[in-house]
Amino acid sequence: MADIKIAGIMRAGAYSPNHIGNDAAIFNAAAEQLRKRGCVVNVYSEDQLNSGEIKEKNIMCMCREQRSIQRLQEMEDEGALVINSAYGIENCTRERMTRILLGSGIPYPESLIVNTNEVVKSQLDQGGYSRCWIKRGDFHAMHKEDVSYVRHAQEAQEVLQEYFLRGIKRAVINRHLEGDLIKFYGVQDTDFFFWFYPFDSGHSKYGHEAINGHSRGLEFDKDQLRDICQRASEVLDVKIYGGDCIVGVDGSIDIIDFNDWPSFAPCRVEAAPYIAKAIIKTIKQRR
What we know:
The chain is an alpha/beta fold. The chain is 38% helix and 23% strand. The protein has three domains: 5-84 and 267-286, Rossmann fold; 110-175, Dna Ligase, domain 1 (2-Layer Sandwich); 180-260, no CATH class. It has helices spanning 20-36, 46-50, 66-77, 86-91, 94-103, 121-127, 153-165, 198-201, 222-236, 268-286; strands at 5-9, 40-44, 58-61, 81-83, 111-115, 132-136, 147-150, 170-175, 180-187, 193-196, 240-247, 253-260. The strands form three sheets. It has a four-stranded parallel beta sheet with strand order 2-1-3-4, sandwiched between helices. Strand 1, helix 1 (20-36) and strand 2 (40-44) form a beta-alpha-beta unit. It is globular. The model has no long low-confidence stretch (mean pLDDT 91).
């Protein structure tokens, strides 16, 4: 398969908060698996992408920078195959993700989408929101402060004001869900799917896992978890994915976050061959 030439675009460090090494590791592992299968993989930075250095028509990318996503969308429109699609990457920004998942009937917390200069205290009080999560709506999280846990409406209002002062214009407010926090990873249209309890395993990016704390081992349908995540990957147009969900005391499963091409840190070795197979399969189908 030496005739399959792939441009691999690594994620800029600013968009791998506390996970630069892990993100680079899964990217390199996937690239090596592609090379073992006879593909030619040339690795580029996001700066090289934006300077027009990429000529390959098959692209695997972990990009998050806004200019990179816009450039990749232009390349897709011109016929390039991009995995994950830059349109899918954009769909994983908070506001778009919230609208798409709720609009598609994917289990997801009750949410408000607001301007950060709005007065929302009365809305939250009337809606029965007490503890909730405020997340920047316009783009991917880059800092710990882009995702904030609040305990009451007044605190939520104060956090929104901080977002506004930081130049963040839109935010999503998710109702806090009680239950077991689960992290998952998957590769669309393959047999690969992995889940675990991140707090119990000491796996954390910002420390927010401590809010729900240790898992209680609540019973839930594992096939349903996989089905929900698979459906989310399809409606968001993200083949290589991961995220977080909450299992309630009644066994309900709600996605609370969904990410394009995460680190796969606890299952990198197992995931890399499936990522490579999915990329090759998609390229052959396009041909």
